[in-house]
Amino acid sequence: MSRARGPSLIAGSDEAPEGVHPTNKASRISSPGDVVALAALACGGVVGLALLPAILGVRCVRGLYQAGKKICSKDPVLDPDMAQDCDGIWPFSEKPGGGGAQQFPEGTKRLAGYVKMSDGVRIAVDVLLPPCAQGADGTFHPVPCVVHMARYWRAWEMRWPIRELLNRGEPWDFLLGPWKSALLESGFAVVSADVRGAGASGGVQSVVWSPRETQDTLELIDFIVGVNQPAGRQPWSDGQVALFGVSYDAGAAVRAAAHKHPAVKAVVASFLFGDIWRELFPGGIMNRWFLQSWCNVNSRLDNARLAAIHPFSPLIMKGAAPASSRKQLSRCVSEHRGNWDLMSAAGSIKAIDDPVAIGSGETMTCQNLELFANPLPSLDGKAVLPALAASQLPTLLISGWACVTSGTACAAFSALAGQHWRLLLGPWNHGGVQHVRYCRETKLLKFPKAKAVQEFLLYHMPRQGFAQSSVPAWLASPKPEVHFYVCGASPAWQHSTEWPPKNVVKKQLWLSTSQLTWTKDDLEHEGSTQLPKATDLVRYKWKASAVAKGRALLFETSVCPTTLAVIGSAVLTLRLRSSKDQDADIFAYLRERPPDGGDLVYITEGALRLSYRREEEAPDHEKAADPHSSDSSMASFGVVPHHSYRRQDIQMLPAEGETTTARLKFFPVAYRFRAGSKIALVIAPDDAAHYAPNPLAGPHPPFICHSTSEQSMLWLPIKEQQLSL
């Protein structure tokens, strides 16, 4: 990727002041919108005070009712084995809990402005400087900086008087503000920029994670460290840069890090999408809920339609923080109307190799967004993650068991991890906003992810005056390490130098009539169960009535005599006998029946559209993340399947009465079943609340065979010392 023409500072004008510059704190009432918002809030406050007695009365009655229910019923929350389910019990932190401050440290200085890219597009940039980078006479002390390319606005501007209550009146990043605060406390400068086509930046997003977007990141780094800059390095930069991002922003970070810019010293990527088809079209079925929600949010942010996000949003927010004048902000936002329509593109593809038109007029496929094997000319023919591994950069990957990116994190670490690589896998949903407590209600996370990032970057980019008193235990060894949270019984953090951890092997359970058995001796000579018809009644909190009403199939083991830890990706191998339908979907849920016989506990899931069942040899990164089987004679049935998803390989179900095999994998997890519980497998024909329906699914779905001659199996990756069941 050529960067001969470097970025440049915008010529000074009232529309785009020169470079990044100090910002002035906004006056209390700076626009008619502030007056309207203040009046609406005042009216709302009066109404709220009038209704307060009634609201408190309703809450008291509801609280008494819920307390009575808990007293009169068995409550799995009281299970002592689960009582310490808290991700904040991080053994390597002196300060457990807490996710960072809700304001930047006292004395933080914010510079803002536009940096002009080599193609003329203006990128909005905030430079947040810690107190240690500011001299008494207005000069700067050089410090390392952390670069963050923001898809969802680098900062939000609030209306008065709300802004007076948040971050001392300065714009705030609601997604990553606590992370930035922790970095500023450690003496790092934070450079946060809106990607082109978003926030206060100009330009158009022609496609997600475009090569031009990656070049923007590299040119911004050039601007910071003085490459191709007449004025040289920025006065607050010491020439060291780390790249950081969460979700989309993590994709921007690793794509830039793979280019081996000499100034980049480390990269932190949280909840990284590495194989967009297999993550957002698992089993070939579009995760319509996620994609539609994501696209709606992007469109509303890109076009500054705050009322579409929430009707009350305009009363408290103005929009993306300006980088210069509001006139320039309006001009940049108007350019976003030409952004690529991701949802329309997603709805038009049925296979991984289907071409779609992008904003530049070119075409691409989902394969072009894959980070493991898609070669890029700018990386000398390497794919992004192999090139990142070859760069030998210290790398911190973060993901969660309740997130589709967990598979990418495990595979990247298994196949590519080098010295100073770290992987954190917690009980988190996408972005790490919540700690998903299995068997209990979900709560906000306590794990100090911001502190972990802080420690990681301080270790690899030491700051004078900010040296850590001792090397954090989780960073002491140069060898790669994975730290993962085992959920369920006796939840706790564990660590390993490899993934999957040692002594984890696959063991099969055979499906029988409503049962899962550890031996095939219990199989019937002839046995099969028809998949239920597709409905829209699938729910994640399964009750016995769901199976009793024929909405799903349930298979359960006998009572587990001891605890049983499942670590990695389970595999379901189904032998199917066709009925009359051409196609069908399989949604499989691994669950636990608690010792008290209560509701089934959700653990993980997998899905497959049966017309995509054709497999091909798995790539090396998937093989590396897959533990071996305890039964070598049947090992091929337990290997994680790799479906091609190519259009030429789409295959309808065979004629009525004929049989075929379909295998699907579950998202990885680390979960310990309680002694006295049962392992449960729920199989459903659809999940209409989240996934696109199968247009070919009808009233005659196939049968699942479970006989001595036609066997179906569930393969679980289990700690080896527990295989004597």
Describe this structure in words.
This protein is 22% helix and 24% strand. By secondary structure, the chain is α+β, with helices and mostly antiparallel strands. The protein is globular, with a radius of gyration of 27 Å. Strands 1, 2, 3, 4, 5, 7, 8, 9, 13, 14, 17, 18, 23 and 28 form a 14-stranded mixed beta sheet that branches. Strands 19, 20, 21, 24, 27, 30 and 31 form a seven-stranded antiparallel beta sheet that branches. A four-stranded antiparallel beta sheet has the order 22-29-25-26, with no helix packed on it. Strand 11 and strand 12 form a beta hairpin.
How many DSSP E strands? 31
Strand content: 15-25%
* End-to-end CA span: 56 Å
Helix content: 10-25%
Number of continuous helical runs: 16
**What Rg, in angstroms, do the CA atoms define?**
27 Å
Form type:
globular
Describe the main β-sheet briefly. Answer: 14 strands, mixed
Quaternary form: single chain
Assign the structural class, choosing from mainly alpha, mainly beta, alpha/beta, alpha+beta, or little secondary structure.
alpha+beta
Mean pLDDT: 85
The low-confidence parts are: 1-5, 10-17, 69-80, 94-100, 536-540
